[in-house]
């Protein structure tokens, strides 16, 4: 144990971690903070698993021809990677893990509105996760995470039934979290916190929750119909039974495009917090950012057909969906410009969370702009089902959503654990992840525009000698990049674990944030706040001052805010 | 297991707080109690409409049959929402949520049907074996 300087605040005598002990006190807890931590562990465990399959996929592609696995094993590996990362990692990562922990504290509330439902949704997640992973590992499904018909209905793919059931269960977990957050934000906002005084992270979580509640049932119905078709032979999607496979894609993407916003919206909410707090500057264009979250949530429901331009969808709908797709770029761009304006003339601290925030802006911009050629009908015909698509959605899903989540984890790590990680190690990790990510996925844009199809296990047969050699160069770079990124993630896991045991005790407000979660101790007590905290402008950093004794920031006493800006 | 009741009350207290903070919300813990006569009346109306659904199947209205059946079902669902689910006495916001959700279902079905109708005549008339067999077996 390191000796503590006497001026450092000790752990609060009783906090949510020490409030009660034993495995049961965690397994049966109704405390949103503990449930959030359990979700976080589950998500990070799944991330490791999904990451291992990603590395296997990348390793297979490092040389032309068969490298480490057969074509069938390859199909299973990328299915496992995709399904785990989408359903078990990214969708629950921000709302269920970080949101659960932070949302009630940001509201100054003691818990979410329905603590039991919250625990229930966690156990549904566990059930769905176990079922999904077991089914995929034992049956080995090879359909990709999209379960497209008629391929998924073929008789020798019985594993699909189990994975579809798992997806159904995971969907309910997601719906329950959404309902809980909507009710919590409506009913538990404290005195003085109007809608436009909420931290933007809460606006983002609210918009996300609306999508979760509206869209996820459609996924449930779709996989249910798939199961009914497989088990009872009723023709819904299968042409040999008189069904329509394009219908499956309609149903699937009616959920799965909004699901993209379930992943990215809360991440954008985190970035709004990161950029403002670490620039120590009032967020620019608060209402624009808040309303753009809602606009994205609504537009997000009108564009699903852009995944189906090459599916046999009618030209009329192709044109409609393409047009509406472009409209989504407006609210997204509003956010990016407002973040940039927030940083302008701010006092930027290049802390680890801020580095992740900056990474997000950089990567999301590339991810967003490369979506435009995919949303354009003519160019999409060339790029459809190539590595260009793979690179594009990894820039958005991984480089943006997941990186924001990791940034948020660093931002609230002192609050969650009561410990500070090494800032130097954190910065090295953040830069490593950023470089590794671009190193991995930028070459894939090249591959895609050259015509390398996605989900191919080989790039030799059927391609000219020159093209194979060119593909090989980019695949080789991409795989090296993925190893580098994996190293950066292990490094990150290493110093975070180290901080749990050796990290310095965290002050209540290490970064100088002004929202309510920085008013309670780190880690928070079981009830979060002894009495309801006063609500001010959560982006007014004049109310914060440095407190040398605590090695952190504190709220000024008797502070009266300046006239409205 | 001392922690369980503790966090339970924490949740309840917090919920109480929220309700106080929203004085305009106007709902206590119990909520609105619907008058018994309205409930019985709704129940009776649902029974009558169910009878109507069955009765109308005996009249051949051609294409119109399906519209009548769905129309009656919609009215029934509306009654259940208004009276059994208290939407009639609730804040207007809940009605907006309800109508909004129906709009989303309509959106999904409308866009999808619009598309399937558009590409119908481009489909090669395949030979769905299972369908043919079923039709043949029905013929026998
Ligand atoms: Cu999409």
Task: Write up this protein.
The complex is a heterodimer of chains A (565) and B (140). Chain A is mainly alpha-helical and 565 residues long. Chain A has one domain (23-555): Cytochrome c oxidase-like, subunit I domain (Cytochrome C Oxidase, Chain A). Chain A has helices at residues 23-27, 32-60, 71-106, 115-139, 159-187, 200-232, 245-279, 286-299, 315-343, 352-369, 371-375, 377-383, 387-417, 423-450, 465-502, and strands at 419-420, 504-505, 544-547, 552-555. In chain A, a hairpin with a 4-residue loop joins strand 3 and strand 4 (552-555). The longest helix of chain A has 38 residues, at 465-502. Chain B has 140 residues and is mainly alpha-helical. Chain B folds into 3 domains: 1-30, no CATH class; 31-90; 91-140. Chain B has helices at 3-21, 36-56, 64-84, 92-119, 129-139. The longest helix of chain B has 28 residues, at 92-119. In chain B, 8% of the residues are buried. Chain A binds chain B through residues 19-20, 24-25, 28-31, 104, 109-115, 187-191, 214, 218, 233, 235, 239-242, 244, 246-247, 250-251, 254, 301-302, 305, 312-317, 526-527, 532, and chain B through 1-4, 6-8, 10-11, 13-15, 17-19, 21-22, 25, 101, 104, 107-108, 111-112, 114-116, 118-119, 122, 126, 128-131. Bound molecules: copper (II) ion. Copper (II) ion binds at residues 257, 260, 306-307 of chain A.
Task: Based on the model shown, name its key terms.
heterodimer; A: Cytochrome C Oxidase, Chain A; two-stranded antiparallel ribbon; 4 strands; disordered N terminus; B: 140 residues; mainly alpha; 3 domains; 5 helices; flat
**What is the percentage of strand-forming residues of chain A?**
under 5%
The portion of residues forming beta strands of chain B comes to under 5%
The profile of the biggest β sheet of chain B is: none
Total beta strand runs of chain A: 4
Q: Report the average pLDDT across residues of chain B.
A: 76
- Structural domain tally of chain A: 1
- Name the poorly predicted regions of chain B: 1-28
The succession of helices and strands of chain A, N to C, reads HHHHHHHHHHHHHEHHEEE
Helix content of chain A: 55-70%
Largest interface: A-B, 47 and 35 residues
Indicate the CATH architecture of chain A. Up-down Bundle
Q: Portion of residues in helices of chain B?
A: over 70%
**Topology as H/E string of chain B?**
HHHHH
User: Would you identify the regions of chain A where 5 or more consecutive residues have pLDDT less than 50?
Assistant: 1-10
